[in-house]
């Protein structure tokens, strides 16, 4: 299957959960984290493993495996997306849940961190099978989710339609509509304006801040993007509208490059017609791997984890790496990039726009009062710029890279909330 082959071809084999724990350990020393709090934060609070029987179109039942992991809830209900992918593992979901805790703390929204995943290949399933899978998975995890407990959202290969099925299933069980149980919903059932582009928009805002502090002009800045889904496609579109030049993009089937700049709207139409950016006539074919190493100013990994490794970090030519994806850079690669003067805008900062507008969606649902898109984008900009400045200030003061800076801000906030609440019983 293309997705699985492609993924193993580009990703390192380091265990992603160990990588997430290592990132926490790295910052624990920097902020003199209390060893007991450190030990507590190294593990998830709760892990739910579910078997999901699904009626398939051919009349048989298939049994899928799914997870919901809640890492920490000291600052509020848990929040995090649901991933449908053939390569989902419990360790991956645990890592993604931990990153959500730090992300919510960094942008200072009152949530803890969670994540969900189902091992499945949505591309090989019919809409009916996907609906059956989503509804039964929701039912199985309904014992731990809810607007005051844990609020899922979209992630890789999950869509607003899937969020609508989650909302409906949970609501049917309660006997009344509960829009606040999930975010990233269609507008007609309590979704928020601006949510679809929020991850990309937040990424754009922090890239603009980074260009400003590095004194690089945004006009004509050359951008390469790996992954052309919700995060990557909208990042290309928004950045092109701001005058950036998109010079290379790729997805599971391959990529396309043009040093003079790709016609992004043409590319989006091509992807909508063919399902991929590969084969677009407005540039040269390029491999998924080459996109990472191409000549550009800003590299935006927007697909999966562990693609920037000790092996290729020395060949990355961008001055800024903006992690729209979660966990694209291994710790060993971080060190190489920092030494080479590349500014890495870490995932917990660069892709926090999605969860920030998810928070706005949840607030609007609870208040039953909906805001204009301009207000949402304006609030998002203020949150992102503030998070960038908190990170940059700490990183500069302590002379560390931006990931350690962001972790120091975020982990300190979570540690403070955990400590002040104390230990029950
Ligand atoms: P998506 O399903 O909309 O798109 C994924 C894209 O990545 C597709 O274009 C797919 O072809 C491509 N892809 C998959 N495997 C690939 C591979 N091996 N090489 C190259 N391309 C590959 O998913 P998304 O929501 O855009 O998520 C992408 C990343 O962004 C993930 O790491 C996700 O956790 C992160 N993220 C997403 C959001 C959000 O709001 N959607 C928020 C925060 C972080």
Can you summarize this structure?
The protein is α/β, with parallel strands linked by helices and 425 residues long. The chain has helices spanning 2-10, 16-30, 35-41, 90-106, 127-141, 160-174, 198-213, 230-241, 264-274, 288-293, 331-339, 347-350, 353-367, 373-398, 402-421; strands at residues 46-55, 61-72, 78-85, 112-119, 150-154, 222-226, 245-251, 254-257, 284-286, 298-301, 320-322, 343-345. It has two domains: 43-189, 3-Layer(aba) Sandwich (Rossmann fold), CATH 3.40.50.10860; 198-350, NAD(P)-binding Rossmann-like Domain (Rossmann fold), CATH 3.40.50.720.
Counted beta strands: 12
Could you say how many structural domains there are in total?
2
CATH superfamily of the largest domain: NAD(P)-binding Rossmann-like Domain
CATH architecture of the largest domain: 3-Layer(aba) Sandwich
Q: Distance N terminus to C terminus?
A: 50 Å
Beta fraction of the residues? 15-25%
The hetero compounds bound to this protein are: nicotinamide-adenine-dinucleotide
The SSE order reads HHHEEEHEHEHHEHEEHEHEEHEHHHH
Can you characterise this structure?
The protein has helices at residues 2-10, 16-30, 35-41, 90-106, 127-141, 160-174, 198-213, 230-241, 264-274, 288-293, 331-339, 347-350, 353-367, 373-398, 402-421, and strands at residues 46-55, 61-72, 78-85, 112-119, 150-154, 222-226, 245-251, 254-257, 284-286, 298-301, 320-322, 343-345. The chain is α/β, with parallel strands linked by helices and 425 residues long. The protein has two domains: 43-189, Leucine Dehydrogenase, chain A, domain 1 (Rossmann fold, 3-Layer(aba) Sandwich); 198-350, Rossmann fold (3-Layer(aba) Sandwich), CATH 3.40.50.720. It has a seven-stranded mixed beta sheet with strand order 9-8-7-6-10-11-12. Helix 2 (16-30) packs parallel to helix 4 (90-106). The longest helix is centred in the C-terminal third of the chain and has 26 residues, at 373-398. It is globular and about 55 Å long. Mean pLDDT is 96; it is low at 1-10.
